[in-house]
Amino acid sequence: MHRTSFAEMHCSIAQTLEVVGEWWTPLILRDVYLGLHRFDDITENLGISRNLLARRLDSLVTAGILVRRPYQDRPPRHEYHLTEAGRDLVPVLMALMAWGDRWVTPPGGRPATLVHDTCGEEFTPQVTCSSCGQHVTAAAVTVRPGPGAAPGPGTQLLARGSAAPAVRPGSPPLQAGVGSGGG
User: Fold this and answer.
1) Is 33 a domain residue?
2) Distance between CA atoms of 79 and 87, rounded to whole angstroms?
3) How confident is the model over 130-174, as pLDDT tens digits?
4) What string of DSSP letters covers 142-159?
5) Do 28 and 53 form a contact (C-beta atoms < 8 A)?
6) For position 21, which CATH number holds?
7) Residues 144, 5: Cα–Cα separation, whole Å
8) Cα separation of 22 and 54, whole Å?
9) Does residue 133 fall inside a structural domain?
10) pTM of the complete model
11) Per-residue pLDDT tens for 28-76?
């Protein structure tokens, strides 16, 4: 199956998916985060083909998400560890896990729970406002064009210029010319 490239799409979500959007990637990152660092251990845990895992690991190393560290010279063997960029993806994985626990829980219940090391309590990941600390929901957010808003595939709504109105998620999409200072 040929995958669509988002490389030319002027969108942070599309650019992120270009790097980590392949189906196996979140599972590989989860395993590395959980302490599986060696190729054979990841292969065994995921049941992924060796060729596919090798390609995904190479891609993640090239993207700066993982770093490859040798642990044996003969034959050459490597471990894989999260970089800073990779560690920054862990809360995203936790958010995906929370969504899965809520909406598509496997039979028998949640396969894992998260415990906050600082307080020792189980928790459910939540997005909070970096300014006020309040829990953020889709209904409580307005999206505005940022400094990098530009016309192109997948970004038409935000790229209509700095005079474009804010987008309230859940409301009907804007029509061409509406709210852009002209007709």
Assistant:
1) yes
2) 16
3) 999 999 998 999 888 888 777 777 777 766 654 445 666 665 544
4) -B---TT---STT-TTT-
5) yes
6) 1.10.10.10
7) 25
8) 14
9) no
10) 0.81
11) 999 999 999 999 999 999 999 999 999 999 999 999 999 999 999 999 9
